[in-house]
Design brief:
The complex is a heterodimer of chains A (181) and B (794). Chain A is α+β, with helices and mostly antiparallel strands and 181 residues long. Chain A contains 5 helices and 10 strands; from the N terminus they run H-H-E-E-E-E-E-H-E-E-E-H-E-E-H. Chain A has helices spanning 17-29, 32-38, 94-97, 148-151, 170-175; strands at 39-47, 50-55, 59-63, 78-84, 87-93, 110-116, 119-125, 127-135, 154-159, 164-168. Chain B folds into 5 domains: 2-255, HPT domain (Four Helix Bundle (Hemerythrin (Met), subunit A), Up-down Bundle); 265-326; 330-511, Heat Shock Protein 90 (2-Layer Sandwich); 517-660, Beta Barrel (OB fold (Dihydrolipoamide Acetyltransferase, E2P)); 669-793, 3-Layer(aba) Sandwich (Rossmann fold). In chain B, 54% of the residues lie in helices and 18% in strands. The radius of gyration of chain B is 36 Å and the shape is elongated. Chain B starts with a helix and ends with a helix. The chains are: A alpha+beta (181), B alpha/beta (794).
Amino acid sequence: MDKKEVDLFDKSLSLESEHEEEIVNSRDKSNALILKDDYFQVVGFILQDELFGLDILDVEEIIKPVDFTHVPNTKKFVLGVVNLRGKIIPIVDLRLRFEFDKKEIDSETRIIIVSMNEYNVGFMVDKIEKVYYVDKKGVEPTPPNIPPTIEKYVKGVGKLDDNIVTLLNVTELLKENGGLN
Amino acid sequence: MSEDMEDMGEIIQDFLLEADELLEELDEDLVTLENSKDDSDLLNKIFRAFHTIKGSSSFLGFEKLTELTHKLEDILNKLRKFEITLNSDMMDAILSGIDKLKEIIELIKSGSDPESVDIEDNIKALMPFLDSNAATEAENGTDKNTKEDSNEIDFDEMIKEQEEEIKEEEIKEEESAMEQEQQTEVEVGENQDTSNTESKKGKDSDIEDEIARLLQQRMEEDRKRRQERKKQNEQKKSEVVKSKATGSNAKKAKVMPEQTIRVDVNRLDDLMNLVGELVLGKNRLTSVAQKVEDKFQNDDVVEELLSVSGQIMLVTTDLQMGVMKTRMVQVGKVFNKFPRVVRDLSREVDKDIELVIEGAETELDKSVVEEINDPLVHLIRNAVDHGIETREERSHTGKPPKGKIVLSAYHEGNYIIISVKDDGRGMDPEILKNKAIEKGLITETEARQMSNEEAYGLIFKPGFSTAKSVSNISGRGVGMDVVKTNIEKLNGTIEIKSELGKGSAVTLKIPLTLAIIQALLVKIAKEYFAIPLVSVVETVRITKAEIKKVENRDVLKLRGNIIPLVYLGDTLGIGKNKKMIDGKEIYVVVVSVAEKKIGIVVDKLIGREEIVIKSLGNYLPNIRSISGATIRGDGSVTLILDVPSVVEEASKVKSNISDHLIDNALEKKEKPSCLVVSPDKSVRNSIKTRMISEGFDVFESHNSKEALDISSEEIFDIIFADLEMPISGGYEFTKLLRDFAAYRNTMIVGISKDGTFDKEKMQESRMSDVVFTPIEEKDINRILEIVSKKIKVA
């Protein structure tokens, strides 16, 4: 099999080259699809100096902040709606959603468009890191130091070589909608 | 085998569709028949309809359906031969038989067992009208135990009938059509018998082949039959026009190929969505072309672009109309069931009522047609029960004993107007008011201020009913509420007219289609909103002197009508502290919802636009006062107001127009004020300290969006805006700010951090001046000088 065809892992996106080597080597021997079963691919982003991760399969795309239209009678964390190629997408400020302090939009601010079960929502985050590979076996349940406001949205904590990433549960995040009733 | 099963499913689907259509027609035809008992054409038509249903249902093995239809067919056969005459008891039995048929069809549709229905009562009710000959047949009918048996008997009967019919040869052409139909049916029957015997031998593959062959034959036959029916209809029409001896014409009609196809509604919906996208694209293209024209005039390429965009616009509009038309169905589809409804109801309340239908051929969108059914049922019921008087009452007042209800439809622009008019007793506004006070729905003061129209509107309040007792038909006070909710859902309006003793008329005005609508665009602070044009009565420009107070609420007297005024921002919960209105020109959009009219005060009227309705998605469901969103020509999102809920909200919130007047805000101001907008804290601080020392109140903001909000709440004398900001920079911000009535001539200064600025953009956005960082004393002084002159003048 040609290497390029099965190149699921973009070198530039991997966390450390050592780990990367290992994956590439093992891919030569076995099959990339088997590897995929052992690792989560998560989009890592920063929120209040902490590293969070969303499953890459739930992420549709990442965009820079654009002008949004405020929608009255919605919860505070709903910033408004934007037009993304003809689709109306609500934008949620994830900081406000988790009851963190508000932060001004700057050049690093990004919006992660999440698409899941007919839901399309954009989450505004401080900064995008990169795509990480999180060993499924290494995922641990939520540690007690996670703030109670976000505890129920956390799937677990993934271990990276020199950091940890808090994996978010998108289903829970979308369950409570942004309307005011 | 599975493919065959799919085919079978298709056949059943076809059958259900056909049966639905036939039963719908039957309802109407039977009621017509009651008034013209000797119409042999009509009798034959009804007979044929029953016959068709019977044939198909027996083939598909729906026993109960076959049995009941068979009985009905027998009665019709006797009627059309004039062996018996129709009376209302017989009609009741037939109609309840049809209801049972519908019930069975529904069961088949929902996948339940159609044989679980009890049809004994219906059979019993029908039996007395059939003579002894028929009674024996009925016995046979009840003895039918197995499918094979029933099939055999059915086919025997069919052959018998067929023979009879051949002998009769009453109406040549129609009969010959039927003969053909039956011959094919007999063939199928025989084949099925052979397939049955074969199945016992267990040759699966043979059976499959056989079934496939049968299915094909059946489909062929169905097609033929449909064509036949169509031809017959056409024939009939031409016969009506040209009386007799039109043999050649009739033949011509026969050669006509089938001109319609059935299309899945989902496909049409998809198409409509695509056209919606195209309309948005078109709007965008037009706006871009306009911009290009403004920028590069007298350029050949621009000319070409304009002509292309013009052409795209025309074609898109045509395409939109074309696709809309494919979704159009005749309103008669709903209207046709009402003769039956009126007949049943008038028998129940013992009144003589004639229903006149006008404009049944008027077309409107399929989804709208589905939604207007329930409201119309309630309006018709209401007219029968409350509107039309009893026979005695009518004779006392010198009216003809037979009451009349007119159900009519016609087009008016992009709307369809449907009205239900009766010549009954009319409504007494005083009685309505008293009843409403009694039920605690309104206060006495409110009642005194009410106009007659508003009083009629009371009937739409939930829980309102003037009926002395609750009957089967109406009186529970929910019906009219349903009318209101459904019509509002369609963005429609309701108007009631009534004259005591002469009758009442309820008129519904509904947009033809739901996906693309005309809207009026308005602006509140920095946000645009679209108001569906159907709800807009008119727009007026007033001054603050014209606003009057009634019971501490703002109202406008408009041609003798008192219209409550409310600031749109307040009803949406975004108006707090907004000071956006110039007291010399206040824009009011008068909207009407069902019976209510209110005036919505907005900052600015933008104009009329065609918009495509999009949903806000699952994450933002049922947002109060917002019904959806649309994408504008420049790609931005504009929210569509849900006018009924805005009006409802308007009666709850406290809205004082004078709170939003710029002039009032300026009067209260003690110190000059200044706003500094920049993401850069050091930049903000340097200007801030300088301005404070000059005696200014200084406000700061990180970004232009927030700054726009702040500047709609506080009116600044000078604004400093950073040219480089995320989302929208200084030029853009200035442009948006100049659109606010309070900032048309205010000093707006750009802050350049790299020593450059764009002169063209500055002129375009009408930015007053530019300063460079680090801020120099002479620049600030220059600006302060201009500002202080302005403040003095003011």
